[in-house]
Specification:
alpha+beta, globular
């Protein structure tokens, strides 16, 4: 469950990412991205599937966010096992922003727009 503190962090991360103040990196786990905030690593993961996976494995984690300290210890964790929850929607929104940041999608799209407008 996302607490008020988690919601504040997610909102701040979305804002900082959209402003280019925070950049996300792809981890070695598919569909997982991470960023550093001070001494803390924040990672976001989302299971990408066609929807049938959840029918067969209903308790599978669909989205999760982990908070890791400088010692590499996970001190907090959010996860959701349903794609219908508000928590999943919020984590999915941050995951999309992290993915776009890690791939440089917005910068590349702006380059394409600039080229086409010449």
């Amino acid at each position: 469950m996302i607490t008020n503190k988690h919601e504040q962090i997610i909102s701040d991360l979305l804002q900082a990412t959209s402003e280019g103040k925070i950049e996300w990196q792809a981890s070695q786990v598919e569909n997982e991205f991470y960023t550093m905030v001070g001494d803390y690593r924040i990672s976001i993961y989302k299971l990408l599937d066609d929807g049938a996976f959840q029918v067969v494995f209903p308790d599978t984690v669909c989205a999760e966010m982990s908070f890791i300290d400088s010692n590499g210890d996970t001190f907090d964790h959010i996860s959701t096992t349903t794609t219908k929850s508000a928590d999943y929607q919020r984590l999915s929104q941050l995951h999309d922003a992290a993915r776009r940041s890690s791939t440089g999608a917005d910068k590349k799209l702006n380059d394409i727009i600039s080229i086409l407008q010449k």
